[in-house]
Design goal:
The protein is an alpha/beta fold and about 675 residues long. It has 23 helices and 31 strands.
Length: about 675
């Protein structure tokens, strides 16, 4: 009102009011209009118009209060919110039926005499002030107040205030109110707690003493005397179940069921930020998944599942035949002899379903608190569409899963394009004991995945700024979710065993985004219904992971993308042109001759591509194109290599007179050499 008057010369009067008691017991304006004043609604307007010009503000139907210049404290008095005792007396008939109740930060109850009392009264050994009676020479008495530090620390600790030591050696203040543990960000919160409590139970002089004492009584230096409490019974993560915590209840997820529980049954303790600020409600199961055999899955969506935006989004990102569907392609058992661009095979449909189930189980794996050394993997989200190496398909939805993790659990974000990511000593500076996910987004080509080996399968060491160090044991360290528009380089079990690859189609791209399908921005614009459906979906993801474990995505697309990246785009273009010449394909060519042909085409590669690397690229090119390297070394009937090296491994090298030869052909090629 003051701002309007000052800036626009408008004087605004502000009133609030309530309905006067009446025979029909109308509680609000809507009741009044629907009952007592039904058919006479204009009487209410007349009553209000009359009241705003009267001093008493008490009318036939309503009681008004002019609050234009009232401070908040005076407005609180209307509802007795300024004083716990007055509020309790005002609602005594209801509150006395409860064993205890909370007003503000404190718990109260009505005793047998009908008097309000604290359920946590200050005992003599925790009374943090002394009252000292003194007399002057004239016999006049006065009371002085003295602060008692040890009693105050005892008072705070009895109400759950402690210090908690982090792995870095630093400590933070916490408050334990079973089963919830809150982190206290600023020491002033503890000081304010003592002052607010004092307002309720002591006279104003005690409060004045606290004001005068300031940091001397309850500053950081003094509060450093609070006891440590690192013997907290946190939930022990289990590999067979997961708990999700909400405002009024929690969900327990197992492989065969999801049940709802009450906090009164919890014996362990949990951080406050583990509790999600919504009253999530269980729905019917969104998706039923069935394992057909070792390779394929099938699924069925419920009616409710069809309405879940995030589930439909995951289905779309797993659809690699959407272009053919759009063009009306026919579903067939086999594409043999047909134009593959105009038909969709049942195998392709099953592969799409496999991609979805792989994503659902990977999300469940990330959400599961427990860690298993036999399943220590980073989830790597990559584009499934074949494209030139270095060319980003982008916008396929990979990062939205990472954003989901950031929304629902403690996570830190790392920009994967950071050029010297492995050389950054403070890369994990934001990582804490609570961190559950590290989201490394959009890693560059040739990202050094080996740099993460120790973090994935072992303890996680962190250098913090300020010369602090910490090591998080494997069971307490976070899991890793990565997105890439390329493929991660590296071969062998050390690389493959640490990756759970999930592939994304280009259903979403620069021209088509999820908002185009669903009409709302994910997370920021979701209403309760979509958030509730997504929580049910996440519970289903955990259940599916507990049931099926690691479900690898159909690998052909991913493997081809990795092969293409290893070969490199320049080498691929040269090889396609070189072997399109019938004089080169199926012909036994000296390696040096073939290699020089490549260098003539790409002279800048001479200093990078060694003979060993050139041979490896030729081998990978054969895999990529479906050719056979040195086919004359393979039995045309069995398809097996006919020669073994000294260690008993297949040996398809072709050497003669100190010269090594390369031949590219087909497996069925029986041309003599």
């Amino acid at each position: 009102a003051i701002q309007l008057k000052n800036s626009r010369s408008i004087y605004l009067e502000i009133y609030i009011g309530n309905v006067q008691p009446n025979e029909r017991d109308d509680k609000g304006i809507d009741d009044l209009l629907a009952n007592t004043l039904r058919g006479h609604e204009e009487d209410l307007k007349a009553d209000i118009d009359y009241l705003i010009n009267e001093r008493s503000l008490t009318g036939r139907f309503v009681q008004l209060y002019k609050i234009t210049t009232w401070p908040d404290s005076k407005i609180q008095e209307l509802w007795s919110l300024h004083n716990a005792s007055e509020f309790a007396q005002r609602h005594k008939e209801l509150l006395k039926q409860l064993p205890e109740f909370r007003i503000g930060k404190y718990r109260w109850r009505f005793n047998e005499k009908g008097e309000i009392e604290s359920t946590q009264p200050v005992e003599s050994e925790e009374k943090y002030w002394d009252e000292i009676i003194k007399e002057d020479r004239n016999g006049n008495q006065r009371t002085e107040y003295r602060f008692r530090y040890e009693r105050c620390f005892r008072f705070l600790q009895n109400r759950g205030f402690y210090r908690f030591r982090a792995p870095s050696g630093d400590y933070e203040y916490i408050r334990i109110e079973h089963p919830v543990i809150s982190t206290i960000e600023r020491h002033e919160e503890i000081r304010d707690f003592v002052k607010d409590f004092t307002r309720e139970i002591a006279n104003e002089e005690v409060l004045e003493m606290l004001h005068r004492g300031g940091p001397q009584f309850l500053g950081p230096e003094k509060l450093s005397n609070l006891a440590f409490n690192n013997n907290i019974m946190f939930e022990e993560p289990r590999r067979d179940k997961q708990l999700l915590y909400f405002k009024d209840n929690y969900w327990e997820i197992r492989a065969d069921e999801i049940t709802v529980g009450q906090y009164s049954s919890i014996t362990h303790q949990l951080w406050k930020d583990q509790i999600h600020d919504m009253n999530a409600a269980r729905t019917e199961r969104l998706i039923e998944v069935e394992k057909i055999n070792d390779k394929y899955f099938n699924y069925r969506l419920s009616f409710t599942g069809e309405t879940c935006h995030f589930l439909k989004f995951l289905i779309n990102t797993s659809n690699f035949t959407w272009r053919k569907e759009k063009n009306g392609a026919e579903i067939v058992d086999s594409a043999e002899g047909l134009d593959e661009s105009k038909v969709i095979t049942r195998q392709e449909i099953m592969e799409n379903k496999g991609h979805l189930v792989s994503k659902l189980c990977a999300i469940g794996y990330m959400l599961l608190s427990a860690k298993d050394r036999s399943v220590s993997k980073a989830v790597v989200a990559m584009d499934g569409k074949q494209s030139e190496v270095g060319k980003s398909n982008g916008r396929s939805g990979k990062s939205l899963i990472g954003e989901l993790f950031k929304q629902v659990m403690p996570a830190i974000y790392i920009n994967g394009k950071h050029k010297d990511i492995e050389g950054d000593n403070f890369l994990w500076d934001e990582l804490t004991l609570k961190t559950k996910v590290v989201f490394i987004d959009d890693v560059r080509t040739n990202f050094p995945f080996e740099f993460l080996f120790a973090n994935i399968t072992g303890d996680w060491s962190v250098n913090y700024k300020g010369n602090r160090r910490a090591t998080f044991p494997f069971q307490q360290s976070p899991k890793i979710y990565m997105t890439t528009n390329h493929a991660l380089n590296g071969e062998g079990s050390s690389f493959s065993d640490r990756q759970w690859k999930i592939a994304f189609s280009d259903y979403y791209n620069d021209e088509h985004k999820p908002v185009d399908d669903f009409g709302t921005l994910f997370f920021d614009e979701w209403d309760f219904e979509q958030w509730n459906l997504t929580w049910n979906l996440m519970a289903e993801c955990i259940r599916l992971y507990l049931r099926f474990g690691v479900v690898e995505a159909p690998s052909e697309r991913i493997e081809l993308r990795q092969l293409r990246q290893f070969i490199s785009e320049g080498f691929l273009m040269w090889a396609d042109e070189y072997f399109s010449d019938q004089e080169h394909f199926g012909t036994r060519i000296p390696r040096k001759v073939m290699q020089e042909a490549f260098f003539e085409n790409s002279p800048d590669q001479r200093k990078w591509v060694t003979p060993t690397l050139f041979k490896a690229k030729i081998r990978k090119y054969c895999e990529f194109k479906g050719y056979l390297f040195n086919p004359q070394k393979y039995d045309p009937v069995t398809g097996l290599c006919m020669f073994l090296d000294k260690d008993g491994n297949p040996d398809d090298d072709d050497k003669s007179g100190g010269v090594e030869f390369f031949t590219l052909g087909y497996k069925e090629d029986d041309k003599p050499f």
